[in-house]
Design goal:
- There is one protein chain.
- With 261 residues, this protein is α/β, with parallel strands linked by helices.
- The strands form two sheets. An eight-stranded mixed sheet has the order 5-4-3-2-1-12-13-14. A six-stranded mixed sheet has the order 8-7-6-9-11-10.
- Helix 1 runs parallel beside helix 9 and helix 3 packs antiparallel against helix 5.
- The radius of gyration is 18 Å and the shape is globular.
């Protein structure tokens, strides 16, 4: 019986310098050669999953934007987009309360012109996406957006922002300074559920590997949740199995543990 394995990107497929261990490449290719499917499953929106070396590893598809974009074999199967009126509300609320924001879409991202000066991730985003990363003022209603993220600064009125947007979005805080907001009730887990229902795959034939707080629902929703050795404790606590560190053949050891390779 063919299985599906869902892989987080950052801290799982590659490290924080975007280095992919050779053992990871070998393991994922062997997984697919054995007749199983391999999917990227990321909090990143699809527009920011574009590195050629990532796709050179070989994947059957991508679940992006915390479950709000699903594609397989290069074809989009499902996409949940924010209504333009809601995007404008996000912009207005965040600007009024001192929080620089990134609108994340399947093609383009739009970011606040000020407020990200001390955030190295923004330099990475601009370098990686090039012309597809634009200033917030260039957003127009015809551009698709899945979710948004933001930096919580000392001057940010976070409580006011949460009060204004909590009916439409789920809030997830990373390291007390980075906010990730997804449409209410959506997550990596809901994207996985949609795909598995579409393909008719049983829960016991699903596996997920991740390392972070936004992987928790994913790890709990599949038949077999796997945390990297370098994962946060909250991810390890909900995992069925904890493998080794990313640079200690973590992916390969996990797939061997479950006899997938």
């Amino acid at each position: 019986m063919s299985k599906i394995v869902f892989f987080d990107i950052d801290g799982t497929i590659w490290d924080w310098d975007t280095n992919i261990p050779e053992s990871t490449i070998t393991a994922i290719r062997q997984l697919r050669a054995n007749g199983h499917k391999a999917f990227i499953c990321s909090g990143r929106s699809r527009g920011n999953i574009c590195a050629p070396k990532l796709f050179d590893v070989g994947f059957d598809g991508v679940i992006a934007a915390c479950g709000n974009h699903v594609e397989m074999d290069g074809k989009i199967l499902y996409e949940k987009l924010l209504e333009p009126a809601l995007v404008h509300k996000v912009i207005e609320v965040c600007e009024a309360n001192g929080m620089p924001v990134v609108l994340e879409g399947p093609v383009k991202h739009f970011f606040s012109e000020t407020g990200f000066e001390d955030d190295p991730y923004m330099d990475y985003l601009i370098k990686d996406m090039g012309e597809r990363a634009r200033f917030l003022q260039e957003y127009t209603d015809d551009v698709h957006i899945n979710k948004f993220s933001a930096d919580v600064l000392p001057q940010t009125n976070y409580e006011a922002i949460k009060e204004a947007l909590q009916d439409e979005f789920d809030f997830m805080m990373h390291d007390a300074v980075v906010l990730e907001c997804t449409p209410k009730g959506t997550s990596k887990a809901t994207g996985i559920e949609w795909l598995c229902n579409h393909l008719g795959v049983a829960k016991e034939d699903t596996y997920a590997i991740g390392d972070s707080i936004n992987d928790m629902e994913m790890l709990q929703s599949v038949g077999h949740g796997i945390a990297m050795g370098n994962a946060t404790q909250v991810a390890k606590d909900v995992a069925e199995y904890v493998t080794t560190d990313i640079h200690e053949d973590g992916i390969m050891n996990a797939l061997k543990h479950y006899n997938l390779i």
